[in-house]
Amino acid sequence: MIVNLRKVYDKPRTKRRSTATKMLREIIARHMKVNFDDVKIDNEVTKELYKHGSRKPLRKIKVKMTKDEKTGVTLVTLPEQEMKKEEKKKPEKQEKKQEKQEIEKKEEKKIEKTETTAKQ
User: Fold this and answer.
1) Model pTM?
2) Residue 41 above 80 pLDDT?
3) Rounded to an integer, what distance in angstroms lies between the CA atom of residue 114 and that of residue 111?
4) N- or C-end of the chain: fewer Cβ atoms within 10 A?
């Protein structure tokens, strides 16, 4: 669901952060038919919402909502598409670390070989 938060910009700059989270909760509570207090917003959503700063929150944000039937709590997260993009980045970092470790091991072996030949 794409949540429109353009009315946040009617408020003064210093109050936009709290107003944006309240509006997000209100819209989701209305949509999912739960209480205002039963809406839990994931940290990733807040980071995305305020990526330009607390004084300039996003005007629209795409979120995914899941409702737990037993407790009645609604969890607000980012869509899976964006999560998959982040997952792809993580293995690249791990591969680079492994490559660096392999290079360091090769260098250590070369140093050991030169030391052993120098001692003989």
Assistant:
1) 0.65
2) yes
3) 5
4) C
2-78 maps to which CATH number? 3.10.440.10
Q: Of 2, 73, 70, which Cα lies nearest the Cα of 32?
A: 73
Q: What is the pLDDT of residue 103?
A: 86
Which helix H or strand E contains 11, and what residues bound it? none
- Identify the sign of the CA torsion 104, 106, 112, 114: negative
What is the Cα–Cα distance from 70 to 37, expressed in whole angstroms?
16
Average confidence score pLDDT of the chain? 86
What lies within 8 Å, CB to CB, of 75 at 6+ separation is 40, 42, 65, 66, 67, 68
Cα first-last separation, the chain: 73
Domain ranges of the chain: 2-78, 82-120
Name the 3-class secondary structure at 53.
Answer: coil
